[in-house]
Amino acid sequence: MTTITNQTNQAGSATGAALAAATANTNSLMGDTQERFLTLLVTQLQNQDPLNPMDNAQVTSQIAQLSTVNGINQLNNTLLALSGQMDVSQSMQAANLIGKDVLVPGSKISLGGGEGGARVATPFGVDLISPAAKVTVSVLDGSGKAIKQIDLGSQQAGVLSVNWDGKADGGAEMPDGAYTVQVAASDADGNPVSAGPLTYGRVASVAYSSNGLQLDLGLAGKHSLLDIRKIM
What DSSP string runs through 49-68? Predict the structure, then answer.
């Protein structure tokens, strides 16, 4: 937890420093732009043709353009501040997930010994984008052969948790090892419905990388905070 706290503090400090630097650079650029604009405007007024003076609408338009640029600058600074706050908030959320079981996109499951010598398969799930009249999950062995079919029937859109008892369709006990799952879903007319498998992982640590905040889920690999579909 100390490591995550330090990383969060570092992220906050880095974000604050980046925001301060960006604001300073933007303010400097804006100051130079305003000075050049005023110099140009005064020069135009001093050297305008007395018989054809600059139209008031032209002056007003130029001032309005400068105000627009200034407004965009203020908006950019606000967005930078909000982005920094979101980064810190995400860091705190991720730190609270350490030790939690989650479901993320993936098709791998594992069958092996559990507590008391019982054979258990890691839990998994289905991410159903829209309601389906029929949802079927197939468990495949290492060679890609389907050895178990689980009929989930009609389901509403959302994340479904699924468990496998480690047995094939005929009731035979399957050996310990790695397996994969496939998902098929269709509506009442038989048209396919978008659905994907979810794999299990336990959050071991949180780290920053070039791809942003990453959760280490052990054998499930590293995933973004946005990949989490369910916290178990």
Answer: BTTBPPPHHHHHHHHHHHHH
| Same domain membership, residue 214 and residue 122 | yes
* Statement to judge: residues 155 and 92 lie in one domain: no
CB 220 within 8 A of CB 88: no
What element of type H or E holds 165? none
CB 136 within 8 A of CB 169: no
Task: Output the six-digit token pair for 95.
Answer: 């730190």
Q: Are residues 126 and 208 in the same domain?
A: yes
Residue that terminates a domain, selected from 96, 122, 153: 96
pLDDT level of residue 94 (50, 70, 90 thresholds): confident
Q: Torsions phi, psi of 196, nearest 5?
A: -140, 155
Nearest to 135 by CA among 120, 118, 156: 156
Backbone angles phi, psi at 165, to 5 degrees: -85, 0
Burial code of 189-227, b = ≥16 C-beta within 10 A, e = fewer? eeeebebbbbbbbbbebbebeeeebbbbbeebebbebeb
**pLDDT for the residue 206:** 84
Q: Which domain holds residue 142?
A: 101-231
**Are 108 and 10 found together in one domain?**
no
Q: Model's pTM, two decimal places?
A: 0.62
CA dist., res. 118 & res. 176, Å (int): 12
Higher local confidence (pLDDT), 65 or 125? 125
Instruction: Tell me the HSE value of 7 on the side-chain side, using a 13 A CA sphere.
Output: 20
Q: Which two tokens stand for residue 74?
A: 């203020």
- Among 69, 96, 123, the domain boundary falls at 96
- Same domain as 166, residue 61: no
